[in-house]
Amino acid sequence: MPNSPHPIELLRFNTCGSVDDGKSTLIGRLLYDSKNLMEDQLEALERSADITGGGQINLANLTDGLRAEREQGITIDVAYRYFATPRRKFIVADTPGHVQYTRNMVTGASTANLSVVLVDARLGVIEQSRRHTYLASLLRIPHLVIAVNKMDLVGWSEARFLEIRDEFESFLPLLDIKDVKFIPISALNGDNVVDPSPHTPWYVGPTLLGHLETVHIASDWNLQGFRMPVQWVNRPNDPTNPALHDFRGLSGQLAGGIVKVGQRVMVLPSGLKSTVKQIWTYDGPIPEAFCPQSVTIQLADDLDISRGDMLVGLESLPGKSADLEARVCWMQPRPLQRGKKYFLKHAAQTVQAVVTSIENRINIHTFESEPEPAELAMNDVGSIRFRVSKPLVYDGYATNRLTGSFILIEQGTNQTVAAGMLMPPTEAVKPEYNDFAI
Amino acid sequence: MNSYHLDHLGFLETEAIHIMREVAAEFERPAILFSGGKDSICLLRLAEKAFRPSDIPMPFLNVDTGHHFPELNEFRDRRAAELGGKLIVRKVEDAIAAGIAVPAPGEISRNRLQIPTLLAALEEFRFDCAIGGARRDEEKARAKERFFSFRDAFGQWDPKNQRPEIWNLYNARVNPGENMRVFPLSNWTEMDVWEYIRQERLDVPSIYFSHRRDCVRRGGQWLPVTDILPPRPKEEVRELVVRVRTIGDIISTGLVESPADNVDDIIAEIAAARVTERGSRADDKASEAAMEDRKKQGYF
Q: Where are the alpha helices (DSSP H) in B147-216?
């Protein structure tokens, strides 16, 4: 039954591959075979098939939503789809494969639990396959599926499937991906997408949907080390209500760990310490909160705290520095320039940043780093050093995706030009003040 | 929900609260678009969750086409008052009278005319951000929209040049005259909205529930008979047991025959539905790219 009223978990995944690998067809197939398509959507498909497709339904039309895309037969931007089975709810980001749209892959994948990389069985591993696998690793997406598509066009050959798997396995050890699954499919005909294929008796694993329904995602959020960037200071300023007269709450979404009433916490960058007096929510106070809940915390002491500050647990302190190193994925036609000022948004604050050096650029074919390139161009990934106008309180991206990431914004145009992943701090923050004595 | 694990509604809720607080912190003059429809009802509950015990730090804005269901406007006014919010209503009729919105010869629908009315209201109050209840699952062009959807000085959306949106880091920067539309419910489905209404015990306008109404059959849909939509000669008026699934203008919103008179029954009905929500909206069927075209001009 589609849209079951009580699914338990939400799985976010993205599909990537190069042009004509059949990404949109695959999503269409997932929706169609899991009975998540409605009659009017089918009708619209049939209408466009009569006009443009010579009568054959084109499942790709389900996701290629913009007229410009249908005309060119391509996907130009990330499209999101939603479907449900009795076991899970799914958010799918369909991310285009053209080399010029790698930024969309980063957009679609940054919040994903899982990436599906599509490969054309006839072509095997191509540059785009290596790039997408690398980006999934760079973004530290917990789970990866290599869907070897168009198996019908290689005669359902197990030898071909194993050959492609070997090609991947020759470079996967160079990357940082823990969970990889290979599945032979035909998106066009529906083999091993929702229903098992009669053509692959040699394949004993799950179908794609079977895997999406069962892959373990409960531990994908970071529950180690309490972090809460302060988004908004909540001061009701209501002189008529004595209960609210002194209310001063710190509103934010936990970016890591767990916080409990009575716990000692530190405010950074000031280094002042206090105790959690109350965790306020609209539904009443709660004894503890965990990542990624949104709450309003009241501290026992009246400290000077504003947006951009971070509350952290004392047991695992983050780093604090104005000189930083990070991997960046460059997303704009104008290359990254050393010495140019950008806005940098990290957690709940925006500061200014200036790039002091470009350490290296990653070669997408060999995954080796080329030292000291002159610039980073559109779609390049490399390491940079930079200085910020105010120290960042941060973790390495490998430890915490939310406190270890940032974006760069070009001044003037306000375009988002880079996704950044911070290297781990060399040392934890050293508080400048002792306990706030009462 | 086990100890440290959010279920899907908990996840969607915290994502939306985070977005609302980003808007409050990053914009000078934001507003919430509130029609009284089910999606914007959820928006206001999320605003309460984001900002209480403080007042919701932004006014509510509605563009009244003059073709609204009266039940909808009554609900809108009552809910805004309950929340202690400031409600601003701008009318398409006034925009037509002022020459801001110009109907084409014979154009009865007010759908297109909402656009200039909305843009004029944003300009009048110098709103730099409008939070809307649109969801990506509604329509194909919506499926490509960001949470923070940048609009240029003409209110236009450029689908080929959207800002990449990475992790939960939203780029909220706009230059003077430009603005942002923000959609906290982007990842919600129709089912999620009703499940949230049930979970939060939210009140909704009565027309979402089954009631008796005089209808006429036009263009494959049941439309409500009203002063602005009288039956044509020889058209048969039938009294049916119906409800609305999505609320557009009273002249273009198809009614569905349904006995569902409570939220549980509506959820059961959606679970079994074989037609999407917008299947009952004539405005989206005009052409396959109808929504894309309207959004490029500045639609919600």
A: 190-200
Query: Does residue A99 carry a pLDDT above 60?
Result: no
Cβ-contact A130, A319 below 8 angstroms: no
Burial label for A351, CB within 10 Å (0-12, 13-18, 19+), is middle
pLDDT class of B289 with cuts at 50, 70, 90 = low
Nearest residue to B37 (alpha-carbon basis) of B265, B216, B223, B194: B194
Q: Three-state DSSP class for A367?
A: coil
Residue B68, sorted as left (phi over 0), alpha (psi -120 to 50) or beta, turns out to be beta
Query: Quick one: which of A206, A221, A318 has its CA closest to A268?
Result: A318
Distances in Å between the alpha carbon of B75 and those of B82, B94, B261?
10, 22, 17
Contact B163 A416 (CB under 8 A): yes
Fold held by B8-201+289-296: Rossmann fold (3.40.50)
Q: What is the mean pLDDT of residues A190-205?
A: 96
Mutation target to probe the B interface, by most B beta carbons within 10 A, among A42, A407, A413, A422 is A407
Q: Do A232 and B21 touch (CB under 8 A)?
A: yes
Across the interface, of B15, B140, B167, the residue whose CB is closest to A401 is: B167
A-interface mutation test, from B55, B169, B173, B280, most A Cβ less than 10 A away: B169
**Structural domains of chain A, ranges and CATH numbers in brackets:** 9-214 (3.40.50.300), 227-313 (2.40.30.10), 319-422 (2.40.30.10)
Going from N- to C-terminal start, the domains of chain B cover: 8-201+289-296, 206-283
A39·B279 Cβ contact <8 A: yes
Residues on chain B touching A258 (C-beta within 8 angstroms): 4
Enclosing H/E stretch for A416? strand A416-422
* Among candidate residues B14, B187, B53, B148, the one with its CA nearest the CA of residue A228: B14
pLDDT at residue B45, as a whole number? 98
Contacts of B171 in chain A (CB under 8 A): 345, 407, 409, 414, 416
Mean pLDDT of chain A: 88
Pick A22 or B244 by higher pLDDT: B244
pTM of the model: 0.92
